[in-house]
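To: structure desk
From: M.T.
Subject: fold request, one chain
Message: Could you run this one when you get a chance? Sequence is below, nothing fancy, just the single chain.
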Amino acid sequence: MSCQFTIHYPQPKELLVAQLEDAMRKTNGEFNGDALGGVFSGNTPVGGFSGSYSIDGDMIFVTIDKKPWLVSCGRIEDEINNYLNQGTA
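Reply: Done. Structure tokens follow.
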């Protein structure tokens, strides 16, 4: 089951890329992307995940292709939103 959601991100997209690279590094994952889009994968204590993103203006379109079955799509969206928007409010 894949998850798809959209995140509003009005900050500079170079900051987004840096945040994603840092997050994937912390999960012993991989990141290949830029300010237009990319792919990522990582690991959590309950399983691995992978997905992709594309950016159009201030909107980020995220697709999670693989996720731990114990983790809901809503939880993933909340975690990504919280991580990307920490300290930007």
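Reply (cont.): The chain has two helices and five strands. Let me know if you need anything else for the meeting.
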